[in-house]
Amino acid sequence: MIVVMKPGSSQQQIEHVVKLVREMGLKDHVIVGTERTVVAVIGNDRFKDRTVLETVEGVDKVVPILAPYKMASREIKKERSIVPLGAKARVGGTKVAVIAGPCSVENKAQLLETAHAVKEAGAVGLRGGAFKPRTNPYSFQGLAEKGLELLALAREETGLAVVTEVMAVDQVDLVAKYADVLQVGARNMQNFNLLNAVGESKKPVLLKRGMSATLEEFLLAAEYIMAKGNAQVMLCERGIRTYEDYCRNTLALAAVPELQRVSHLPVVVDPSQGTGKSHLVDSMYRAAVAAGADGLIIEVHNDPEHAMTDGAQSITHPQFVEMMKSIRRIATAVDREV
Ligand code: PEP
Ligand code: MN
Questions:
Q1: Does ligand 1 lie within 6 Å of residue 274's CB atom?
Q2: Which pTM was predicted?
Q3: Which of 165, 167, 237 maximizes ligand 1 atoms within 8 Å of its Cβ, making it the mutation to test the pocket?
Q4: Is residue 97 a contact partner of residue 124, using CB atoms and an 8 Å limit?
Q5: What is the pLDDT of the chain when averaged over all its residues?
Q6: 15-39, pLDDT tens digit by residue?
Q7: How wide is the angle at C-alpha 223 spanned by C-alphas 81 and 251, nearest 5°?
Q8: What is the DSSP letter of 243?
Q9: Is the C-beta atom of 103 inside 6 A of ligand 1?
């Protein structure tokens, strides 16, 4: 930011501004002009309170320097963005959108059974990976195009919007042909070529937070997509790596209000990857709605014990029915609807 002093401001007033800037842990660079003096503030001042300086005697105005993630920033667009989820649903606004389905598409019966069950219970989106980013190269890697075809079939039968991951630049056209929303996974949050490629696509993007990414890095990843012309980005908090071992990831729910404070993009929470344990998912989807999440993405399986991926964090169909009832009550309490 730049602190512009009033014409005729005193040396004492300028020194006071300098003192406050230093107290904020920032550097100052005083430029004395013929008419007025300005104090350029050097350092990352994104989260500092400008209003403190605005009220100081002798200060005319404080001009913020645009955020590094300009297009994703709330400074550029005050009203909250709404992103379409297929033809009928949206993420953002007063409703809380629920996307549910298996971690991976495994076969036709499994996907269709779960798709019908989550639709019946009130989900608006169907998740399911056809391309799976697996730590172990010998683990199930997904059904690829066959999985995408099954997702399209499930959409035809249920009307649910399809959300599925794209892992590589050369998969974008293929996945976009079948999906309503392109998911960029945590492991790819800083795959800048992929971010550029989904940015050139016309499909909305669900961008997952990298497991060691700061919120600023997360928003800069969103900025990559937006800078290529695709403004339909949803931010998804899915937990970060910490020293904790009671859960797979630590679900950072304070990221929800913070992202909404600094960005206009809708925020979706994934308590499934976010905890890794189905008995924790239950409390965390409720907490996410209470914290103001615009959407939830939940792993649901018809037979979690035999799931090919992420069974431990998948909830059953009956548990999903209970979840929908529970979050309807919580949504009402925070002036939202499901
Ligand atoms: C998933 O949604 O199944 C997944 C792999 O998510 P993440 O990229 O958040 O780990
Ligand atoms: Mn998963």
A1: no
A2: 0.84
A3: 165
A4: yes
A5: 96
A6: 999 999 999 999 999 989 888 999 9
A7: 75
A8: S
A9: yes
